[in-house]
Specification:
There is one protein chain. The protein is mainly α and 92 residues long. It is rod-shaped and about 110 Å long. It has 3 helices and no strands.
Amino acid sequence: MPGIKERIGGHFRDNPITMGRKVDNYLTENLSVLTREYKLAAEKDIAPIDQQLDDHDTTICELEKWKVDVKDRVSIIKKRVNKIELATGGGK
């Protein structure tokens, strides 16, 4: 029968303690404390903010399209004004 030293050595050979496992264990044990201490947010806390950002992004895209449309309309109006001025002699 193997001694205690051999059994412990065998256990750690079969179940090595890796850095990843240490980190996982630490986070599992201390996550609630870390969350409070460092004011960390969970995904459920961020979801409304993500929605607001999506809404703002949509609004910005709509405003950019509106801006292009207005510039096109202004360009057409300027051309029409120039034609009228040339036709009436008011452009001199």
